[in-house]
TrEMBL record:
Protein name: Delta(24)-sterol reductase
Gene designation: Dhcr24
InterPro entries: Diminuto-like, FAD-bd_PCMH, FAD-bd_PCMH-like_sf, FAD-bd_PCMH_sub2, Oxid_FAD_bind_N
Localization: Endoplasmic reticulum membrane; Golgi apparatus membrane
Chain segments annotated as transmembrane: 32-50
Length: 516
């Protein structure tokens, strides 16, 4: 039998099995079947389309010419909304399933959708060391564009599909953030279409209040149409050192010590249990020992978090040279460690060699096809949260994560938080070192109940003067939310710019207590 006929017969048998079991049962209990046979090939087609589109735009140099017209079209839509009587709130017309956030944006069905088709790199200014981009440019797209020119951006948040707009209106972080801060702190200017249809540019010296209020506002002050981001020279490799550490106190001491060293280009920790972790420190370099080069981003390579775990299991340190772009997107193939819950055999060498080139499936397609049953299952028995707490409370925070969630691995990423105006800043008058603790997976705590457990976690984070990333499920009341975040500048601008009739308050847009 020819390979084509074998494939046809296999697909027919698969369809008969799905029909016998029922589609919903297959999607819930055997989701890997749907992901492997449908979503992974479809994800490849998505990637090919966007890569061809980006190549065509680059060859034709059409992005800068068309940008102005696209912005005028957005302004026209906003003015049309005003003519209609401003009866509904506005939001972007991008479908909710296309966002990387696992939250389902039900407001899209009731708000006025403003179509924003802005997904191109506009200009690279080598003299100013600034790149100007549209909001739907992704991290994968941007690094692929800049690296051949010898540039990169200081903070490259991990997943390929994260967009510039999402990282500004929400937030973004990477293992270089102990030097550069959050993604918003690497931006030098924003351009927005406001509620009256006007186009405004803001920076630390021009409309500065708006510049500092935009991050974390989730699109509730205006529509972002362009951003200017700092660039730094790119180097070929990251020299990465792996250090297993045992004992919670020693883990926290070592991680804090390395996070304070500016000579470390990157600092990251993976905590595999309450008493076991691997602390990684990296330095950008153009030179590498050939025998120690590890192209970890190649499709047949082990998932990064599994590779790191080997140093813990073998109780040994090690140093490798990882190509820079592979390092920047090191957790992409396994979506950190979320993919192991969807494709349990995904890190098997046979699967990696045969099908690893199709991994990962698009998060947006996973959302689109998850169905109500899976959504409820994830909501009650799955955690995807990033909590930002002062570094001085790291030990107490890890212990609390262990007691309340018991999810491992935990991701540790340090960042410096400047004392700038806006929703997120340190309690004191000076910049402070913080840490992002990321928990992604199924809680093993026996008494875990999504709402009660997360409210307890949110209370703890507020008591530490920490912050919750707003892409995730948030269970706080309005009063609790504004106790966590500083809303003084945000509310002042919403009043001054007549946003109250144009956009919902950020709390109403993202918090479960407001959305249900």
């Amino acid at each position: 039998m020819s390979p084509v006929w074998s494939l046809v017969v296999g697909l027919l048998l698969l369809l008969l099995w799905v029909r016998h079991r029922g589609l919903e049962a297959v999607l819930v209990h055997h989701r890997w079947v749907f992901v492997c046979f449908f979503l992974m090939p479809l994800s490849i087609l998505f990637d090919v389309y966007y890569q061809l589109r980006a190549w065509a735009v680059w060859r034709l140099h059409s992005a800068p010419r068309q940008h102005g017209q696209r912005v005028r079209n957005i302004q026209a839509q906003v003015r049309e909304w005003k003519k209609e009587g401003s009866k509904r709130y506005m939001c972007t017309g991008r479908p909710g399933w296309l966002t990387v956030s696992l939250r389902v944006g039900k407001y899209k069905k009731t708000h006025k959708n403003i179509m924003i088709n802005l997904m191109d790199v506009l200009d690279v200014d080598s003299e100013r060391q600034v790149v100007r981009v549209e909001p739907l440019v992704t991290m994968g797209q941007l690094t692929a564009y800049l690296n051949p020119m010898g540039w990169t951006i200081p903070v490259v948040p991990e997943l390929d599909d994260l967009t510039v707009g999402g990282l500004i209106m929400g937030t973004g972080i990477e293992s270089s953030s102990h030097i550069y801060g959050l993604f918003q702190h690497t931006c030098v200017a924003y351009e927005l279409v406001l509620a009256d249809g006007s186009l405004v540019r803001c920076s630390p010296t021009e409309n500065s209040d708006l510049f500092y209020a935009v991050p974390w506002s989730c699109g509730t002050l205006g529509f972002l149409v362009a951003a200017e981001i700092k660039m730094i020279p790119a180097k070929k490799y990251v020299r990465l050192h792996y250090q297993p550490v045992r004992g919670l106190q020693k883990i926290c001491e070592k991680f804090t010590e390395e996070s304070k060293k500016k000579e470390n280009s990157f600092v990251e920790g993976l905590v595999y249990s309450l008493e076991e972790a691997v602390i990684m420190t990296g330095v950008l370099t153009d030179e590498a020992e050939q025998s120690k080069i590890n192209r970890i981003g190649n499709y047949y390579k082990p998932w990064f978090f599994k590779h790191v775990e080997q140093y813990l299991k073998e109780d040994r340190t090690g140093t490798e040279y990882i190509p820079s772009r592979h390092y920047y997107h090191r957790h992409t193939r396994s979506i950190f460690w979320e993919l192991q819950d969807i494709i349990p055999f995904g890190n098997n060498p046979v699967f990696r060699y045969l099908f690893g080139w199709m991994v990962p499936p698009k998060i947006s397609l996973l959302k689109l096809t998850q169905g109500e049953a899976i959504r409820k299952l994830y909501e009650q028995h799955h955690v995807v949260q990033d909590m930002l707490v002062p570094m001085k409370s790291l030990e107490k925070s890890i212990q609390t994560f262990h007691d309340d969630l018991h999810v491992y691995p935990l991701w540790l990423c340090p960042f410096i938080l400047p004392n700038n105006p806006g929703m997120v800043h340190p309690k004191g008058d000076e910049a402070e070192l913080y840490v992002d603790i990321g928990a992604y997976g199924e809680p093993k705590r026996k008494q875990f109940e999504a709402r009660a457990s997360m409210r307890q976690m949110e209370k703890f984070v507020r008591s530490m003067h920490g912050f919750q990333m707003l892409y995730a499920d948030c269970y706080m009341t309005r009063e609790e939310f504004w106790d966590m975040f500083d809303g003084s500048l945000y509310h002042k601008l919403r009043e001054e710019m007549n946003c109250k009739d144009a956009f919902p308050e950020v709390y109403d847009k993202i918090c479960k207590a407001a959305r249900h």
